[in-house]
Fold each of these.
Amino acid sequence: MHSAPQFIHTSREGSWAAGRWLIALSENKEGGGRRRRRRSRKKPTNGAKPRPWSEGDPEAVERALARFKQSPPPMGLPANIDPPPEEKPLHWLTNAVPKKIQKQVGEIVCRPGEFGFLPNQRVDEIRSEIDDFPITIEQALSLRGALNQEKSVHSHGRLMRNANQLRRRYENGEGVLPLAKRFDAPPVNTFRAILTGRGWAKNRIKETLKNPTRMSERDQQEFAKAEEADKVSSVNQSETQTAAEVFEDILCAHFDFLDIRFRRQEELLREQKKSEGRAVVTPDLLLIDDVRINGVPCAWIDAKHFFGADLRFPRKKTQKQVDRYVNEYGQGAIVYRHGFTESLKLNGAILLDASPLDLTPLDEFHQKRAGGHHS
């Protein structure tokens, strides 16, 4: 069950950006007195740590506030909202993981060549090693996924440069898993590189891996081993996608519970395919009410069923998505299922964790699919 939502009061008077980011300028006193010596800036104390992830972007905020008066309205926002948009101040308690903890735990959870699901014994080992860190085992395992994705991106070029060498080693009897460990790369990507070394085009590789029976018996066996040992670049990502959809449903249920109006991604997708022929801009929730989360006006919410690690690849990928939403609607928010690193900053989106959400449906989903391994 949800606890009663906590609300905070925010004023509508004046410019929001001016109110939040008013910069005090020193006045020139009459008489031309001496300039005061600039005081050294004190480092924030533990009680006043900078929280860039919680701050709105002034320009994006103004765009979010203006969206109800915009003509024509932004894509997907009804021209006539009845009753009119209501201001909904919402307090969302969020705790971020320190950057140094991301680094220390990352060194514990990641091993060369280890890209697949983890057996219970390895998970227990990780749990024991991070026991004194301010991070849960679920967050640590999700961080592992982000770090492995980052390694996958960085190892791609190295695999392609060594495609011929990989092919030769493979054809001389070396298996795909030892090769993947040798290059510290995801096994499925390693197998793709072997096929590239044979001169196969990208489309042929893609279509063949969708239907592995087209390959030789040995190739089928090696590809099956690669798929089993690879959670990062596996061809079948259906379970991950389904879990993400369950998390989106939970987020929508929470906003329903708070009596906040919104439109779901599916509705926006249907409309845009009809009018534009494709999906253009489809956040998980497009807010119809004037929602202020921790004082920041938000026009949209997007759900991420993973840990928000401060790493180049996921940060760049998410920022690109956020930019599309901000250009259309203004300021929004990202809700990370497993929390995020405190140094992570996305322009135009405040960051939230899943603390206020009832995650029971997601727990039940994972229990049904548990088979002695973990991500």
Amino acid sequence: MKKKTIRTGIVGAGFAATFHFESLKKVHGTNVEIEGVFAIDAEQAASYAKERGIKAYDGLEKLIDKVDVIHVCTPPVAHEPVAIAALARDKFAIVEKPLTGYFGDGSPDFNGDSFPKQDALDQALASIERMLEAETKSRGKILYAENWVYAPSVQKEREIIEKTGAQILWIHGEEAHSGSHASTYGFWKFSGGGAMIGKGCHPLTAALYLKRVEGNTRNGRPIRPKAVSARTAALTRLPAEGGLGPVQGFALGFEDKGHIRADYHDIEDFSIMHVTFEDSTIADIFASDIILGGIHNWLQIAANNHRTICNINPNTAMQTYNPVDAYFKDIYVVEKTGTKQGWSNPSPDEDWFTGYPQEMEAFYRTIAYGEPVEINSSLAADAVSTIYSAYVSAEKLGAEVPIKMF
């Protein structure tokens, strides 16, 4: 079969746009022509384009009209309008996670610490509905870029579930590191929340996906999330006074040693979600910005016939001891490691273990040949609905909140 050629455009010119570009180089099932890039920051877009030999566009619509698919690599606040603009022109939209969210009321004094979280849930659900409606009217589709679903370890677990008819009883997962790359991440109005949505969306979506796989295999329909309870904390913003009340003998507040990002404005840096599914099984999802030693991504599945631990990052495919940090000055080890000295787990191909090239290969086969994908907009919507329901729960000090499903 002759390969089809797919014309693509990238919206955004930051960290996500960089790894999307690299992943596109590894797509083999189609020919990919990268038409260009558009970003609100024209200088950043020009630099990104020059480095990669592509064109920087001065308008979103101009780029969309030249391509078959748009990669939405912007901060989450722009995911909905960019995706809808592509869908309105019958183009595919590959949307980074989270799919969408709530980004404040537009007032200059909006603060993520103090607004009612029910507002966030209501507005996030409305955003989801607008995106899904736009998709139903389009010949294009939303392709949700949750790479955890395509990570080789998660896909191997899918195979185990399908071939053994496993019943998943408990899923335990985490994404954690020492702080986001993006300067906008510290503000709710740009990121739609903190660790719970920015990092928790990854293991959560993988957990929701595997329960769907189980349900489809065992019962012919997916098992969906039913309710969630959650707690959050802003540990790097602990106040220097008043935090411990009458307790004596303790230093109050966060003591910054320079290893953990600590400039967040109004978001949480720690969260835990406890999800109950329709079949009364459970998942516990941790997410935080307070973990040193590199990015920490894993998912554990406890089933009635097996147990799996998916070590996405780090893993022991390679272990290296380096006695002097400077020896490795030009060697990439793993994302967000604080030092290259001592024992480490350099990833031979970090993108592969994390699922990025597999994700892009699947998406482009869908665009070119109509092949099915492992993850659709409904799963993305369930993830966002679960997270914002969890924010409502956290505001209520962990009370269980029902989840609207899509």
Amino acid sequence: MKSLAALLLFCLAFVLGSVATVQAEEVSPAPSVSTPAPAPAPSIAPGTDPATATRAWLDTVPPDKRAKSNAYFEGGYWLILWNFLLGAAIAIFLLNSRISARMRDFAERTTRFKAMQVAIYAIGYLLLTSLLSFPLLVYERFFREHKYGLATQTFGAWFSEQLTGLAVGLVGTTILLIALFAVFRRAPRMWWLWGAAVVGFFLAVGVMIAPLYIEPLFNKYKPLSDARINESILVMARANQIPVTQVFEVDASRQTNRISANVAGFLGTTRIALNDNLLKRCTLPEIRSVMAHEMGHYVLNHITKLLINFTLVALVSFALAKIFFEAAVRRWGGRWDVRGIADPAGLPLLAVIFAAISFVLTPVNNTITRVAEVEADAFGLNTAREPDGFAQVALKLGEYRKLDPTPVEEFVFFDHPSGRARIRMAMDWKAANLPAGGAE
């Protein structure tokens, strides 16, 4: 669904959980997990300054692995562009060919109810755009992931999950579009303001329902069976007033070998979960550092803050979209047979405008998330008190995220701090001589 036009990307992706999970980073678990041996740590003399210590940690990564990680992550820069261009090309094709208008006409002939007309149009639009964008999707999400050794699924299993995601997307996006076009019909002048409010509402609903109803469609969640790890996590949760009594394990290894965890949901749907890769690949200090980071998102109210921030981004985006949409309809509406904002046939135009806005706001959106991640990192270090474990995890995440980017790269493309920035924070914390957790 990522390569659909940006209105759907902007709204649906967040609704289906990208804000809800506030994940650390980016999958049949064993009945019990033995803690792996810690990876070799650099030899750092006591009193070494944090900058030198950070460099020593980074130098433990072999050049070939560093090059592979850099190539993977830098390839993502281009994919941002290709997804934007493909979405724009699809939207322009649907408008210029009048396929969008014919889909609208079909919906109007089928029923006189406006909401049903939007639903019929939305389903056809989603299916068609998904089909047209599938070649890039399969390269980006399947072949590329296997090329870099990050995926574990067969094509059949992967495709089955894509169909499940499409089904969820059809339901969620259709409901969203029905609500948006109802606003467009009833508020032809202020649709941008009420449209942003609708998106904010759907974001909040998505955050609440994703942990309970959406994520279990793709992975199995079960109580963590390792009592030692479970209690170590719950001790930190109790100390920070997080209302959970159980930690869940996710069978993510059947999809990927990335490590991940999250404290997801709010308003009574809070859940702590970690994937089985984290259990298989990380020591207890590393697990504690990851889970303490995730708890930071909850304690620091990042879910609520991100909802507010991205709703404000939506407000700005809708305000800009109004200007560009109305100008485009005045100039080309007759050629496309688009009547106005309340006309479903104008959805591709609205989508390409949102795609352009989202593309330009890439640094803004990434910075909003990255700031929250930095705050959660600081909270995690103070809670787990595992600076070396934190540094080890940063190196593991560096398998698919560039460890030492330029400042401009980090500002524009990173929605999490770089490995270098995270290790430096850990070494700064360690140099302050705060008592650290016991080594495993």
Amino acid sequence: MKIRCTWLGIVFLAAASSAAAQVRGTGDLGIVIERAEGSLQVLDTTEQVSLGRVEGLGDLSHASAVYSRDGRYAYVFGRDGGLSKVDLLTMRVVKRVLQAGNSIGGAISQDGKIVVAQNYVPGGVKLFSADTLDLLAEIPASYGSSGQRSKVVGLADAPGKRFVFSLFEGGEIWLVNASDPHNPTVRKFPAGKQPYDGLVTPDGRWYLAGLYGEDGLSLLDLWHPERGTRRILQNYRGTDEKLPVYKMPHLRGWAVAGRQAFIPAIGRHEVLVVDTETWELTGRIAVAGQPVFVVARPDGRQAWVNFAFPDNGNVQVIDTESMSIVRTLEPGRAVLHMEFTPRGEAVWISARDDNKVVVYDTASFKRVAQISADNPSGIFFTVRAGRIGF
């Protein structure tokens, strides 16, 4: 039998071959926010390069992002209230909505179908369809007898299509069940004075809210919310004078390594070590300045710490076995964020005032790559798509 090849067949085969060559997964992708330009860069953590830039995302001065379950879409929350759905493979904005006047982050549901934005102005949260970004429901953060609205902080997803967040002025923790996303239900708990951020532990059981207005933290058991909140680490500062706070710590960056949590202390040059079974303070680690993020390497052996001004050009590495500082690095001026690759062989660090992202090998502490970026801040990798509370 003779095989006859036409020009049309050749063109078809060439096109099919080209398309196949462009097919790729998303597991080693991520983004870095370029806060001054309202843009982001799509990153390849395997080749340690930038793949391109996506623009037109509004005010990203305090931006964060969550991912669809397949890691293809990043949902970017801008300070101007913008919520943008970005396709990492085509590097384009699929849809963008202005949903509030001042927004500070968001979360995505356990099943990946609901995206929630937390807002300062007007205070509250809004639930959106992850597919279309159509509004599903709004929950005003009203508190007190006069019904004033509070800034919402510390929003995180929790198992069971639930979300949990804190009211800064309201001093409360709210637990939302979004099983019916058009009619979510809310349970309210006392938190303490001025909760400023919060997190859900990696196993999805505990929600912790850090308190700015008083020493300590507020703890809610998400397995047994009927037990209410309880206060932990009360008076951890003791009688020592509180230092001026130049930048609020971010609790979402707490390091949980094994049964130990490594927590940035407000107004102190310390990282607190807490047993996550008893929630008792078990140690203090002196560090170079006021810690902002304390982030655990995925295997839990290291915790990396960055700092507020004037020490924000440094990063320190804690060995979680010896509870000691094993390395001090100087990635650049104004280090804002750190993100580990999925298995932790490298960490990516943004240095805003030097307009660069620096990549370190976490075993040797050698600088292995550098990428130019315009005022880089948050770095978010797609591995977050499979993690609770991220």
